[in-house]
Design brief:
alpha/beta, two-stranded antiparallel sheet, single chain
Length: 571
């Protein structure tokens, strides 16, 4: 049996999916997070079923790639039951999609999510009356807190077995004519008949928006939030990194005694231990707190406020306001950032947004900035590098948009309510994002370190270093930094992990000057996306676009590095 979850963006659909499937789908308190469908097998009432999380969509008749994918899946795949997750605080707009789904003549369950928010707003929803009129099960749900989840899936399995099918007589069939206007009016009528408004009090949340969305103070708060995030990540990382490095130094010495009889095995063993140590002691102390902080900002609902504030900025660089979603996702990973450009309707917007999203420093690149610049030069230096990154992205976007002129429509964005983040969700979200590092990046870090050890043993590392020498020479970096930069194309963490191995020390200030550390980090922030991002660029935009964007990132990275070198020279 296959159950499909569908709903408008930001309705809590992926949160519901994660409640039963474990954390497998990206969620966020802003629209455009899910742009592909995710499947998982779960056990419900003793039966194993397939649950599919479809991308967020307002309609099955839309032209965006996400809407087309959702419509295609429901039309062409075997779906035994559909769970329509609706935002109960905006029931009229949510019922538009419900009425479309009823036309598919498939078993349907309507889950009214965020019922706790509805109650806070003074909304009283007559679920039983709505169920009688639509002739489908209508159930209350608070997915973020696990309330009503079991009942929703039990009812969906029951519906899939043929016990409940969504049909609604003559009045419904008349309303479901192909006129969109008719369907919208019927949805408003349903909401009017089954939702009553009680007393709503002005709360601290409303007053908070007066500040966070203010045309002046909103930006002040945004800068403060980002700075505090940097300080927190830096503080935690600097506290954890030294003892971990000391521990692994002892472990490495003990491990090397096992290979003392063979110089080659000793060199390989040293490389492997250095890769493991760098992953644990240099990358994770900064990666984990950064992802945890990002998860809190998402769950609170602050990211849509950032999108609102940045809409004018996006238009100044020639982009649709919705392009802020790829930018926000990019701070976690550039792969979902590029994928989320599917939510943009125009090919020109998708191309520009994808190109700029690859310049956003992902969590792996931020680990380089924190582990190299923040640790040795201080959090203010890292924050300055981050601000330079935003400036260069803005200038690049402005230049490219001039080359690809086109009017960009305004952003219509509904502000989701503030929500108290649950520790369980934030931890699960952080693990979901760091799992890629543990499962995919860590073997590459260890293997890359072993390869570098072999290259050094046989004297071949010099070939890679001279291959990158035109770039490292211009940036006045040591010859040995070539190998870490080349291997960093596979995974950005390698550019930091292998740097310690290439220089022969994890204490970078003994091998690099302050200027060299800042220049190296600036180059890593921009140059060539990792292989996974390149693959997604090729799939989404084609080989030519991937090649052009790759070359562009190298040019921009070199420019940024030279700018930083000039600034550091003056200082």
């Amino acid at each position: 049996m296959r159950v499909a979850l569908i709903g408008a963006p930001n309705c809590g659909k992926s949160t519901l999916f994660n409640q039963v499937a474990g954390y497998k789908a990206a969620t966020g308190n802003f629209s455009g997070t899910t742009v592909a469908f995710t499947e998982s097998r779960v056990r419900v009432a003793g039966e194993v079923i397939d649950v599919v999380d479809l991308p967020g969509t307002f309609t099955l008749e839309g032209g965006s790639p996400a809407e087309q994918l959702a419509a295609w899946y429901l039309d062409s795949q075997e779906v035994d039951a559909i769970v329509n997750v609706a935002d109960s605080t905006r029931l009229a707009s949510s019922l538009d999609l419900t009425l479309e789904l009823l036309r598919l003549d498939k078993p349907l369950v309507l889950a009214l999510n965020m019922m706790d928010e509805s109650a806070r707003l003074g909304l009283k929803i007559d679920g039983k009356g709505l169920s009688r009129e639509l002739q489908i099960p209508v159930l209350p749900l608070v997915a973020s807190k696990g309330r009503g989840v079991k009942r929703v899936f039990l009812k969906s399995v029951e519906a899939g077995r043929g016990k409940t099918v969504g049909r609604n007589g003559y009045r419904f069939n008349e309303a479901m004519a192909w006129n969109a206007d008719v369907r919208h009016n019927f949805a408003k009528e349903l909401a009017h008949n089954h939702v009553s408004q009680g007393d709503r009090r002005v709360t601290w949340r409303d007053r908070l928006d007066d500040v966070l969305l203010h045309p002046l103070w909103g930006y002040v708060v945004l800068a403060l939030v980002l700075f505090l995030l940097f300080q927190a990540v830096y503080g935690i990382g600097k506290f954890i990194e030294p003892p971990l490095l000391a521990l692994f130094e002892v472990l490495t010495k003990d491990a090397l005694t096992l290979f003392g009889f063979s110089p080659l095995l000793s060199e390989i063993g040293l490389g492997v231990m250095q890769g493991i140590a760098a992953g644990v002691a240099i990358v994770l102390p900064y990666l984990l707190p950064f992802l945890f902080g990002l998860g809190i900002l998402e769950d609170i609902g602050y990211l849509p406020r950032i999108a609102f504030l940045m809409d004018a900025f996006m238009h100044r660089i020639g982009l649709h306001g919705k392009a802020i979603v790829p930018f926000i996702l990019g701070y976690g990973c550039n792969v979902p950032a590029v994928m989320s450009t599917r939510t943009l309707e125009e090919p020109r917007d998708r191309y520009l947004a994808a190109a700029l999203a690859t310049l956003v420093p992902c969590a792996a690149r931020m680990a380089v900035v924190f582990g190299l610049v923040a640790y040795y030069l201080g959090p203010l230096a890292a924050f300055g590098l981050y601000m330079l990154n935003l400036l260069i992205i803005a200038v690049t976007g402005r230049i490219i948009s001039r080359l690809l002129p086109e009017d960009t429509p305004g952003l219509i964005l509904e502000m989701p309510p503030y929500r108290v983040p649950t520790i369980r969700n934030v931890i699960a979200k952080s693990w979901f994002r760091v799992r890629e590092f543990v499962v995919e990046a860590w073997p590459l870090l260890t293997g890359g370190s072993a390869v570098l050890a072999l290259l050094n043993y046989f004297g071949l590392a010099i070939l890679f270093n001279w291959l990158a020498r035109p770039f490292t020479w211009i940036m006045t970096l040591p010859l040995e930094t070539g190998v870490p930069l080349i291997f960093g194309i596979f995974r950005k963490e390698l550019s930091l992990v292998m740097l310690s191995q290439a220089l022969g020390t994890a204490d970078f200030d003994t091998a690099l000057t302050s200027m060299q550390m800042a220049v190296y980090a600036a180059f890593v922030m921009f140059y060539l996306p990792c292989l996974a991002t390149l693959a997604v660029l090729k799939r989404e935009l084609g080989t030519r676009a991937m090649t052009v964007i790759s070359v562009l990132t190298v040019v921009i990275a070199l420019f940024a590095a030279l700018v930083v070198r000039g600034i550091m020279t003056v200082l």
